Amino acid sequence: GAMMRKVILLLLLLCFTAHTRGKLHSPPAKPGLTSCRSPEKETFTCWWKPGSDGGLPTTHALYYRKESSETVYECPDYHTAGENSCFFNKNDTSIWVNYNITVVATNALGRAFSDPVEIDVVYIVKPNPPEKVTVTVMEDKGWPFLRVSWEPPHKADTRSGWITLIYELRVKLEEEIDWEMHLAGQQKMFNIFSLRSGGKYLVEVRCKPDHGFWSEWSSTSYIKVPDYFHREKSTWILITVFSTFTFLILMWLLHMNRHNLKHCILPPVPGPKIKGFDKQLLKNGKSNQIFSALVVPDFPPATSSNYEDFQVEYLEVYVRREQELVLEESKDLHNSCLKSESSTSDCDSGRGSCDSHTLLMAKCREAKEGERQTDRECSPMRTEAQRRLKDWEEEALNYAHAGIVSLEMSSGRVKTWPSVFSPLPRYSSSPLDQQSSLQMAKQLSLSTSSYLTQPGHSTKEALGQSYWDLCLSSKQPHLLNPPTPVCRELQAHSDVNISSIGHKRAPAGPRSPALHTTEYVEVQRVDNKDTLLLQPVVQGCGRMGGCFQMPHGEVYSKVKGVDSDNVLLLQREGMGEDRCPCVEQETNEVTGSCHKSCTVSTTQKPSGCIYTAVPVRDEMATMANGYVDTATMCTLHTC
Amino acid sequence: MHLVSVIQRGVWAVLLWPNLLASSVPLDCREEQGILSRCPSISQEKLLDRVIEHAELIYRVSEESCSLYEDMFIPLQFQRNQVGYACITKTLPVPSSKNEIQQISDKWLLHSVLMLVQSWIEPLVYLQTSLDRYNAAPEMLLNKTKWVSEKLISLEQGVVVLIKKMLDEGMLTINHSEQGLLQNGVQPQMLESVMRDYTLLSCFKKDAHKMEAFLKLLKCRQTDRYNCS
What we know:
Distance between the termini of chain B: 81 Å
Keywords (chain B): Disulfide bond, Glycoprotein, Hormone, Secreted, Signal
Radius of gyration of chain A: 67 Å
Radius of gyration of chain B: 25 Å
Structural class of chain A: alpha+beta
Family (chain B): Belongs to the somatotropin/prolactin family.
Largest sheet of chain B: none
Number of strands of chain A: 22
Number of helices of chain A: 12
Number of strands of chain B: 0
Strand content of chain A: 15-25%
Protein name (chain B): Somatolactin
CATH class of the domain at 44-80 and 97-175 and 200-223 in chain B: Mainly Alpha
Subcellular location (chain B): Secreted
Oligomer: heterodimer
Distance between the termini of chain A: 173 Å
Helix content of chain A: 10-25%
CATH topology of the domain at 44-80 and 97-175 and 200-223 in chain B: Growth Hormone, Chain: A
Strand content of chain B: under 5%
Helix content of chain B: 55-70%
Largest interface: A-B, 40 and 41 residues
Order of helices and strands of chain B: HHHHHHHHH
InterPro entries (chain B): 4_helix_cytokine-like_core, Somatotropin/Prolactin, Somatotropin_CS
């Protein structure tokens, strides 16, 4: 029983004590001093927070003690600063000493002491916010800016320097969230730049002493920035518009000239510009056709003013077989001539066999026959004089001298070494006065040139063939313009690569056609295209039989050969007042012997001695049987 | 019952135990503590700095007041030069020459400052009343002089505390010599109030500068004894 009662009492006591906190009367709880603040370092205020009052009316009192003094003072002013506060005025405030402050809560049941707080007035200064904050919009060269000005709180004695305050302001647009902070230092004015046109701004200012707390923000000031137009922006707009126009115009121009530009930047690759060159043929791979296509139909030129002085008769030149074959394929008119002659050509290396007297003779005969044929066939290409020359030639053949090695070339047949031809000496007894030496020379030269310019081209030879109808005929003097017998001595030697023919001297004076078939053609000159210009020579060696003999020496020149520089070396034979050498074919000529030293004569007789050194093709072959020997070379100089 | 009572007391004790710890225990003071610091007292260096700062302010304001008064009421230069010898604090045993100042001890420095301060409290009050009687005294002048007199009193308190701290002397009784400095120091020819007021202002300005100098010297001596002048 007693035990239980004690326990019950104890439980009740516990319950009551638990209850006491909430409901039952009890001594007050301990108050707490929340903060003490001084607005101007001359006065200060302390606030406390009371604890629970224990259900009974509770009073609070603030007691303070000055440093190192035991005197306890009570708060002089409980009302000025509001509820639960104590205000210390100027007389009670000393910056020299610390304050020890305690708040005591008292009710009927007891007291409660708060924790004491030491106060140093200088360190608890929290000024009032700055006052009279004004914001104005000002302009700086068209750009607006905000000028914010304010005054320190009226209680803070900054004028005397008692308190030194520093200020800070913040700005933001109305619609923004974040503030833009600016520290203004001790000045009381601040400028804000970079404003948005037409924006509404909010400005606030606060201050702080050297040692102390930041004040509260001042009341917000609103300002609206007027709309302004960027002067710069308008300039940029103008610039952009102009540049756009310029750009469009440039593009238009480029577009109009795009073809020209394309040619300029990407020039077209030049194709082959050879006349007559057919790319398709090249692709087909038939070289023969290609080359044949390159034949210039009208080459050598049919007419040349240089040759007008010459009366040329036919020249017969042998041509090699292969060349003849090619010639056959040529599309020229001379092809017919060539073909007719192909059978008669003998193109073995030992051309000498062809060139032998007998063979030549035989060939000449054959050629002569063929010539007739070709003559008929090539009649359109020949003049009547040529025909006559040919006839004369035939005659001459009949009278061929043994000692004369003459290669008579049927018309249309050109005997050539690679690009070298040597005209056959013709013996013509018939007067050649009427033969146009010029014509002959022309023909000769033309064919020569054809060989020269197109070495190795058989077509050339073919071309020349027609002209090379050695149809010198002395019987037809009237056909030739200058009534000079054409003495033509053409040495055609298969072994000799003679790119040009030396002077061919037409033997002056008429000859008996039966005996003197030598016709001389004087090489007039060689033009820059290596064309040997021949002129039938009528001169002192006109003695019929002498032209081809040594006595003609002075006017003859024998084609000795061609030197390495492709120079036609002529040997001057004999001498004569007339220093026109003529190419003479001497049967008794030994290979390689020059009877005479070549007289290098740079002077030209008006009669037209022309010495030409004509570049000769590569092959050199020694002649046999007195033909022009390459071993002994005499160079001729052009007049 | 005994147990119950014991239990009750124990319970009360448990309930009221926080109150037992109500009395605070002063902690050691640290220099850098801010608000609600537990430092029992302001340190000596800090106090000296504050006193010096105070004195500087007083001097500055007094200088401004004097120049303001001069510009307004004393236009002629010759009049300004007359006040040099009529300062009321001449009679105080305050060192005035540099030699004396260097030889004086810290204690006497402080006491000199205190004497000066104390001797000027009353005249300034008189000056204030005198200026109030003016017709055209500017507001600023009045405010300044008023401010100065207030701050002077505060300075006196500070110096007293400083003396107590530095010299470990007891509270000095603020002994305002009521000898009537004004009566003694006022020259007969200075009956004119303007000149009198002006004299007061300028003399005070000089003395304020003196106070400031003494205090600064004192501070200098605290840090480096032998390099101060």
